[in-house]
Amino acid sequence: MFGEKILNAKQLAMKLGVSRSYVYKMLKNGLPYHQLGSKSRKYFVYKEVQEWLLNN
Q1: Integer Cα distance of 42 and 10 in angstroms
Q2: pLDDT above 70 (res 2)
Q3: How many beta carbons lie within 10 A of that of residue 15, not counting itself?
Q4: What is the C-alpha to C-alpha distance for residues 41 and 43, in angstroms, rounded to an integer?
């Protein structure tokens, strides 16, 4: 599941074929993400990212 449906920023960039800096630009524009705590890393649900990209 992790690495296929749930991705970190590096994995998301690789799957989308963009740079990590572009992923962070998308984050500033409202890319959906999740965190377990305020100091934990962001993770992305690939299906949510796909829907966000299609709707924006």
Answers
A1: 11
A2: no
A3: 15
A4: 6
